[in-house]
Amino acid sequence: MAAQAACSLNLEVVGKGPRLALVHGVGGAMQNWDGVVDRLKSRFELLRYDLRGHGRSEKRAGPYTLSDFAADHVALLDELGWECAHVAGFSLGGIIAQALARDYPARVDKLVLISAIAGRTEDERARAQARANALAEGGADTHLDAALDRWFTRGFQAAHPEVIEERKRQAAAQHKACYAAAYHVLANDDLADDLHRIRHETLVMTGELDAGSTPRMAALMAERIPNASLQLLPGLKHSVLLEAPELIASRIEAFLSSPHQGFH
């Protein structure tokens, strides 16, 4: 039975080839994939969309659940007539991708988890929840300046102020309540104990300097997913889609273009 979209989502489909769905992070928009799309659209048919409450998608009131985001994704596949697709998820999109592989395994081919979360310590969870609460109380302005140093290297900030200003503008323009509702999912959902149920070929990537989606978490994902490989991205922090889109695209392309492998 086809899934029914819970809310109206802004989407774009470009390119031709194997199908790949791109899921952005909290407080972002589908445009965060621009650099990756430019590199991959000649090789893949790409679906990207604004998550509920983000960008030009419907600003449906929260609270949101991880199941809501996964169901939205499957509803889009149904609307497009796509039986399944590779999935690449960034940050919150990486948790959504994990949920899709767990709950809708037939709708996912290969899986790419970028700057994703799993296995937070109690201290890490508390800090994430504090950021979620601050967003709910004061909006994006309460944490943007501190977030920039978590997201981008200092060198990139100095060399590309236009990218930084656009990312700040994007975050500040988010619907306050929707941003907070989505951030609570990022802060509170953790599928570490379910990763063994993901049977898809999986590529896990994170920046070696990412303080939120840490190399330790990436290693845990690669260890617990039975058919996963790990790639740490030298010298990068969290916002690798914007700071290193060519690198991310090349890693995705190589992984998705390789023959299917058996479980290790």
What ranges have pLDDT less than 50 throughout 5 or more consecutive residues?
1-5
If strands are numbered along the chain, what order do they take across the biggest sheet? 1-3-2-4-5-6-7
Tally of DSSP helical segments:
11
Name of the CATH superfamily: Alpha/Beta hydrolase fold, catalytic domain
How many DSSP E strands? 7
Structural class: alpha/beta
CATH topology: Rossmann fold
The percentage of residues in β strands lies in: 15-25%
The rounded distance between the terminal residues' Cα atoms is 34 Å
CATH architecture annotation: 3-Layer(aba) Sandwich
Shape: globular
Helix content: 40-55%
* SSE series: EEHEHEHEHHHHHEHEHH
Instruction: Specify the CATH class.
Output: Alpha Beta
Short synopsis of the structure:
This protein is an alpha/beta fold and 264 residues long. The protein contains eleven helices and seven strands.
Keywords:
single chain, 264 residues, alpha/beta, Rossmann fold, seven-stranded mixed β-sheet, globular, disordered N terminus
Please render the helix and strand layout as text:
Layout: E1 11-15, E2 19-23, H1 34-40, E3 45-49, H2 66-80, E4 85-90, H3 92-103, E5 108-114, H4 122-138, H5 144-151, H6 154-159, H7 161-172, H8 176-188, E6 202-207, H9 215-224, E7 228-233, H10 240-243, H11 245-257
Parallel strand pairs: 2-3, 2-4, 4-5, 5-6, 6-7
Antiparallel strand pairs: 1-3
